[in-house]
Amino acid sequence: MRRSTVPSRPSAKARWPEIRARPFDRERDPSTQIENLLSRKQQSKLRAIATVLEYQRSNNTVFSEGEDAHFVYSVVAGVVRVTRHSDSGRRQVLALMLPGDLFGLPDAGLYVNSAETVCPATLYRVPWAQLREMLLREPEMQINLLIRVAFDLRQAQRRIMILGQHNVAQRLSSFLLDFMQHSDFYDARRRLLTLPLTRFDIGDYLGTAPETVARAFARLEKAALVRRHSSRVIEIRNADALRSLVGGRRRVSPH
Amino acid sequence: MRRSTVPSRPSAKARWPEIRARPFDRERDPSTQIENLLSRKQQSKLRAIATVLEYQRSNNTVFSEGEDAHFVYSVVAGVVRVTRHSDSGRRQVLALMLPGDLFGLPDAGLYVNSAETVCPATLYRVPWAQLREMLLREPEMQINLLIRVAFDLRQAQRRIMILGQHNVAQRLSSFLLDFMQHSDFYDARRRLLTLPLTRFDIGDYLGTAPETVARAFARLEKAALVRRHSSRVIEIRNADALRSLVGGRRRVSPH
DNA sequence: CGAGCGTTTGAGATAGCTCAAGCCGGGTGG
DNA sequence: CCACCCGGCTTGAGCTATCTCAAACGCTCG
């Protein structure tokens, strides 16, 4: 078993948590999408039961598949990868959670996926039991949760499209274009994209091997669509060409 | 553009609807999953606003992506494929809706996917506006919808795993094993699976070409895991071997 | 300055794509 | 009732994208 096998990817360096938890502090917290969906009153109720977690490092486990699910999480800052391992032990990154995203909804009381930090991150943690009660009392709040889950479903369907139809260069382009939407990672003026992920993470996200990701980068660079300033810092030289690459065919006719 | 291009797949024979709609008739309708989640009172309310649609043929359009979304649907009998077309015009089958499944939730008032019958089918049609109001009034009903959408999300994540990690023979095995769960299609005693889908549909579901699906069937047959009685009728000769195939590695080491 | 991880590139093997041709079964019309 | 036709299915051939194993490179941290 060379890589990508069960417990985790390369950095199984098992650094330990170093997480600090503190009660919700209204003053310090930037507003997030989930809050924006709620009324002030609802927000304050949610804050009353939320805890803020600060993960100082990457590759920290938030929760693991199969564990009892007591909490739901929301990203305040940083990036969390939501993963699942297939029977063969290979890891798939199902989704990347960015600020404002919600994750950790239980299935029959258990987490079905694992979640780890991809870089230092700040999260809200909300006890599921209390949230559940609150939802039953407040239909408007619940419908907001429904909207979020429906959004996640559409995102997942988008991933299905990409995995089912695109070659690796197209998937990578699509991934880069997605990250360019977030000013946390993309400096639009200088056209510089700073990726928080390793090639292993990107590979597991795109359903391919890290070497293939590296080669896809090389290919995009040769075609002058991007330029690698370093492995994590990518200059976007031609976003339109990236877009039209994604829109093209998976394979060009051999004739 | 040989196949799999925009409007639809081979049978663009454009047969027209022949749909019959009738008000909900309590006596004739088998209970479906969505109803099972609801109390009697809720059920009767839902029935009051539901219409039953009967599609007599396959390849009938229920709705198309981009249309205004006025209704939500639930499958009573038959199979519906939910599809989306990529920019290149290729079709992806995002999900197959079987009896009890719900589909057609709008995104910003529009359908984001298309839905077509795969065989003759009976559906419930519920006006979204009325359902929405009902949900706001009845939190328990809403939480059931939330559970359904969360279920769909997990299904979609499962598809992501399969598309991202498995080779075509594994995907096909996984597809067959799924269908074996439904007594509508699988005769457990005789071990006969009757597929409602063409090779084109299966290919678009599994993210591959129909020829490759045919070859995967040939491979499974040669390994004595299945036997094709006809292209649509498959004898399952070794379900355990199918399962362990799915659990194995995508590609065997070359050495 | 060495170790370790992550990245890149190379080489060889192969699964799956595309085009093409033949087959097969069921429905239709003579 | 049979022959034909058409759509779907299968198989073949050639090509290439991607996988796997290897090896070398280069940060970064200690």
Write the layout of secondary structure elements.
2 copies of one chain form a homodimer.
Chain A: E1 20-23, H1 33-36, H2 40-49, E2 51-55, E3 61-63, E4 71-77, E5 80-85, E6 91-97, E7 102-103, E8 114-117, E9 121-127, H3 128-137, H4 139-165, H5 168-179, E10 186-187, E11 192-194, H6 199-206, H7 210-222, E12 226-228, E13 233-236, H8 239-247
Antiparallel strand pairs in A: 1-2, 2-9, 3-8, 4-7, 4-9, 5-6, 5-8, 10-11, 11-13, 12-13
Chain A binds a DNA duplex (30 and 30 nucleotides) through helix 7.
Largest β sheet strand count, sense and barrel closure of chain A: 5 strands, antiparallel
The low-pLDDT segments of chain A are 1-18, 23-35
Residue-averaged pLDDT of chain A = 87
Q: So how many helices of chain A?
A: 8
Task: Describe what you observe in this structure.
Two copies of one chain form a homodimer. The first copy, chain A, contains eight helices and 13 strands. By secondary structure, chain A is an alpha+beta fold. In chain A, strand 12 and strand 13 (233-236) form a beta hairpin. In chain A, helix 3 (128-137) crosses helix 4 and helix 5 crosses helix 7 (210-222). Chain A is elongated and about 60 Å long. The A-B interface holds A 84, 86-88, 90, 92, 94, 105, 107, 112-113, 135-140, 142-143, 145-146, 149-150, 152-154, 156-157, 159-161, 163-166, 204, 206-207, 246-250 and B 84, 86-88, 90, 92, 94, 105, 107, 112-113, 135-140, 142-143, 145-146, 149-150, 152-154, 156-157, 159-161, 163-166, 206-207, 246-250. The structure holds a DNA duplex (30 and 30 nucleotides).
